[in-house]
Amino acid sequence: MRTALLSTPQDALGGNRTTALRWAGRLRSLGWSVRRAEHARRRPPCVHVDLLIALHAVKVRSEIERLMDLHPEARLVVACTGTDIYELGAEAQPLLERADGIIVLQEHALRELSSTQRQRAHVIHQAMPRRSVPAREAAEIAVVASLRAVKEPLLPAEAARLLPERSELRVIHVGAALDPQIAEAARLEQANNPRYEWRGNVRRSEALCLLGGARAVVVPSRSEGGANVITEAFALGVPVLASEIPGNTGLLGEQHPGLFRPGDAEGLARLMLQVESESGFAEQLSRLSNERAALAAPERESAAWLDLLGDLGLGS
């Protein structure tokens, strides 16, 4: 049995944590033994390690370099999660240059890599099985995002304030408080904005329940590598409203009708109102999510991993 060590940022929450857990399970289903690097720190493995996986090209660099010294024969795969290529590009280069394989979460991220790096790169979309959901009658707009600046987490609340009085929409926001100042702002917003509720960090099952029953999900980030919540929306057939950034358009398409300029509360408010008042618009967005659900198929993710492992000489 081959062995892999998976290194994730110590503060990994939300999407990155979901990705790490899912990939570990995916590799185990392919016959691999997978250990998290933090477990190996406490008890170094005495077995041969075939593969090192870095889930972020910058945040885990020092740990991965230590593991490379311990396991010089192991192949290295670096997964670009968003900020490492879209905001920290120069800092990401040392690990990307050393990588035997590179993972990006949507096709547009390939544009951020050099020509030689693209030759080693594989697109692996985030996976989630298709799920049936009840008819969406709740007047809720879902936001699934941790409270940190890059996620623009309070933009949907700002947009909700701009809705006309006749609107019944409410923004329900779930996500961990990673920035104390933004968390305080969210609490103040909730106290003063009847259209906004922040429920804090919740179990993934609760977040998926909110997502599945919402009129639409908003992904307002300034930077994304390929958001889990978008492929989850695909699997659930949920309409997606998203900032027009490469990490979102790489999944949704550049002509997606639910795009708004980053930071544009007025533009987002117009789209939210369209979802509520124009049944044809909401149906169009839902249809587009259903059409892209194949991107999130678990078997597609497994096949992509098999292709990557084969290229690394680690196939069965």
SSE map:
Elements: E1 3-7, H1 14-29, E2 33-36, H2 37-42, E3 51-55, H3 61-70, E4 75-79, H4 83-86, H5 89-98, E5 101-104, H6 115-119, E6 121-123, E7 140-144, H7 155-161, E8 170-174, H8 180-192, E9 196-198, H9 204-213, E10 216-219, H10 228-236, E11 240-243, H11 246-252, E12 259-260, H12 265-277, H13 279-291, H14 298-311
Parallel strand pairs: 1-2, 1-3, 3-4, 4-5, 5-6, 7-8, 7-10, 8-9, 10-11, 11-12
If you had to describe this structure to a student in words, what would you say it looks like?
With 316 residues, the chain is α/β, with parallel strands linked by helices. The protein folds into two domains: 3-126 and 297-311, Rossmann fold (3-Layer(aba) Sandwich); 140-295, 3-Layer(aba) Sandwich (Rossmann fold). Helix content is 43%, strand content 16%. It is built from 14 helices and twelve strands. The chain has helices at residues 14-29, 37-42, 61-70, 83-86, 89-98, 115-119, 155-161, 180-192, 204-213, 228-236, 246-252, 265-277, 279-291, 298-311; strands at residues 3-7, 33-36, 51-55, 75-79, 101-104, 121-123, 140-144, 170-174, 196-198, 216-219, 240-243, 259-260. The protein is elongated. It starts with a strand and ends in a 5-residue tail after the last helix. The model has no long low-confidence stretch (mean pLDDT 91).
